Amino acid sequence: MDVKKSNYSVDDLTKKVGESLGVSDWLEVTQENINLFAEVTFDDYWIHTDPERVAKEGIFDTTIAHGFWTLSLLTYFNNQMGIWPSDTVSGLNYGLNKVRWMSPIPIGSRIRNHVVLKDVRKRGDSRFIATYLCTIEVEETEKPAMVAEWLGMILTEPV
Length: 159
Prior knowledge:
alpha+beta
């Protein structure tokens, strides 16, 4: 996926601290995606991968998404939203300040990301660190599934 850029520069981004940068498209959570994630991460815990066992023994009505699967989607969601300034040459994951999984994501539900800009700091020539408050919402559910402070490095010139 190509990174979608905004119509504002990194200088303009600094004026948007505290503002919502928007919401992503909805994404359906499928059992197939969860099973693939379980396979590549060696995390096949049955509450994620065994719908029959969950129906008999589980505390949830259905299998649920892995928390780390949800976290790993931040790049996907953020890249489609145009949160990168127009003068971005490259954007890199820089880290996370805090992640909280607030409620389970049932298979078959739809999720999206709502982003609020918390901070932008210059980190040297042509480098900036933006802190984004990312809230993963589950359609028709009031409580968010996950809230994370995600840091992105913005490079405005080739390094």
